[in-house]
Amino acid sequence: MSPLELIGGIAVLVGGLLAVVGGIGLIRFPDFYTRLHAASVTDTLATALVVLGLALMASGVLVVVKLVLTLVFLIATGPVAAHALAKAALHGRLQPQLAREAEEDRSSST
Amino acid sequence: MPHALSLGLVLYVLWLLLSGIYEAWLMGLGALSCAFTVWVAARMDVVDHEGHPIHLRWGRLLVYLGWLGREIVVANIQVVRLILSRSMAITPTVAHVPASQRTDLGRVIYANSITLTPGTISIDVRDGDIEVHALTREGIEALLEGEMDRRVRELEGEPG
């Protein structure tokens, strides 16, 4: 096993673990909006590590190019989907569950 | 016209990279399909400065992406810590963050950068400000310092 393959393997492993952590957050966080934050861990660093790790293990430049393009498109479309979800929830009048002091700020300002 | 040229060029480079077979016949077919796609896009009137933002300062964009990548890694570590901590000390906050970009494209880049950074999500975009939901109060405070806002504003060139 070459050192590049080793580093790639470690990156894929760490990325996979991060995806699991994102899943745990999805269950532990209290409401829809905070759960979106947990999902964005899986969206960004976990995906990047898995794809870049695979790129390090790949044979041939063209495969690497395709993997990097996959990452570029995922990074470009991920936030659009997350924003669409959050905006849909907001317009559907789903109230975010806020921290206590933030709740007080809100009620004193209105 | 420069937008159409840039679209055709990007399409053809993409086609070459994805195909991987460099024979005259296939490369000719690729060039033809790229030209056809540009023609269709031009007829649909979608070849403009929003679809092909060649006026952006691309050198600065690379610097920005590097900076954003670092921010994303740092934010990821913070959110992972929160997820795994026993007490889960989150303070979800909603606030309006000023967005000083002059163009729609600049605002989109800013809003997407906010969403891409774990711990903050843009939930509504208006002229001049963005409504952000943050996992912690600190997330909002960091945005209000305005470094990301300034960096995105500096990417904007003159839209042609």
Features:
heterodimer; A: 110 residues; mainly alpha; 4 helices; 85% helix; elongated; B: 160 residues; 3-stranded antiparallel sheet; 6 helices
Largest sheet of chain B, described in full?
Answer: 3 strands, antiparallel
Helical fraction of chain B equals 55-70%
Low-confidence stretches of chain B: none
Number of domains of chain A: 1
Structural class of chain B: mainly alpha
| Major protein interface | A-B, 40 and 35 residues
- Structure classification of chain A: mainly alpha
Average pLDDT figure of chain A: 87
Morphology call of chain B: elongated
Largest sheet of chain A: none
Q: How large a portion of the residues of chain B is in β-strands, by DSSP E? A: 5-15%
Helix and strand string of chain A, N-terminal first? HHHH
Give a nutshell description of this structure.
In chain A, helix 2 runs antiparallel to helix 3. Chain A has one domain. With 110 residues, chain A is mostly helical.
Give an account of the 3D structure.
- The complex is a heterodimer of chains A (110) and B (160).
- Chain A has 110 residues and is an all-alpha fold.
- Chain A contains four helices and no strands.
- Chain A has one domain (3-109).
- Chain B is 58% helix and 11% strand.
- By secondary structure, chain B is mainly α.
- The radius of gyration of chain B is 20 Å and the shape is elongated.
- The interface between A and B is large, with 40 and 35 residues.
List the helices and strands and how they pair.
The complex is a heterodimer of chains A (110) and B (160).
Chain A lengths: L2 H26 L3 H26 L3 H31 L8 H10 L1
Chain B lengths: L1 H18 L4 H20 L14 H27 L8 E6 L5 H13 L3 E6 L3 E6 L2 H8 L2 H7 L7
